[in-house]
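name: query_chain
kind: protein
chains: 1
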Amino acid sequence: MSENLINNYSEGKFFCCGYPATKCKFFNKQVKNIFKTFISEYESNPNNEQFKINPRFEIPITFNRKDVISYTGENISFPYPNGMSGGPLFSFNMDDNKQLKYEIAGILTRYDANNEKTMVATNMRFVQLMLDRINQT
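structure:
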């Protein structure tokens, strides 16, 4: 697999969404989930002794759950993100014509529960390359 095929999102802005387990309730044989979203940036220094990322296929994003920007632009406290794994990570920016460009960048997989400052997604291009490789066999 050629590393230059993996998109680099180190300058990215991100939109994340999912269903945190702490906001999932089961009552009277019904499940009620609350859909949560936030906007973030690339985390340039996510590694510590207990939490390592592989920049070849992972995208680290800043996640301080006590200081998150909601989709409406407000600073909010976010619930613990357990349960959001598998949710999409979208990258977005403005092009030269001031048009919003976005794409699915990755799939949320984990976060640094010890420091509560970083969430990680698997790069979508890496996922596509792995699926292509499986289909070729």
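note: The chain has one helix and ten strands.
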